[in-house]
Write a structure and sequence with these properties.
The chain has a single domain, classed as Substrate Binding Domain Of Dnak, Chain:A, Domain 2. By secondary structure, it is mostly helical. It contains 5 helices and no strands.
Length: about 130
């Protein structure tokens, strides 16, 4: 949310989730490109697809959180499952920076998927401003 204080629109826990998901998206995308160039086990099509799947779902979950979607818990559940699996695979292949980022994303999404009040809707922030989203 450029130029705006995201905390006005989403809760602090959701803001942390957005940050973790966004970082995960960036690192998984970069890691996929690096894995292809390294080749070998890293360039395996299944692993590269997993990295790209993780990048996509983490970006999607972040967007659901930012807009306070009523469906954010479902996006976070999917993100948790994929990011946790991606973290394990990255760790197995020695891509530790990516693994750590995926794990942070998975942990944040696990919390947000379980706590429906953690990611407050955009309407809450809009009410604080005296408008409605």
């Amino acid at each position: 949310m450029q130029g705006l204080d995201a905390r006005l629109y989403i809760g602090e826990q959701a803001e942390d989730g957005v940050r973790a998901c966004t970082e995960c998206h960036e690192l998984c995308t970069e890691s996929a490109m690096r894995a292809v160039s390294i080749g070998g086990r890293h360039g395996d099509a299944e692993f590269v697809r997993l990295l790209l799947d993780c990048a996509d779902i983490s970006s999607t979950a972040a967007r659901f959180l930012v807009r306070g979607s009523d469906m954010r818990r479902y996006a976070c559940r999917a993100c948790f499952a994929i990011a946790a699996h991606c973290a394990d695979e990255c760790e197995r292949l020695g891509m530790l920076t990516c693994a750590e980022s995926c794990r942070r994303c998975a942990e944040a999404c696990a919390q947000l998927a379980m706590d429906p009040s953690a990611a407050s809707s955009a309407i809450l922030g809009a009410e604080r401003l005296g408008t409605h989203a």
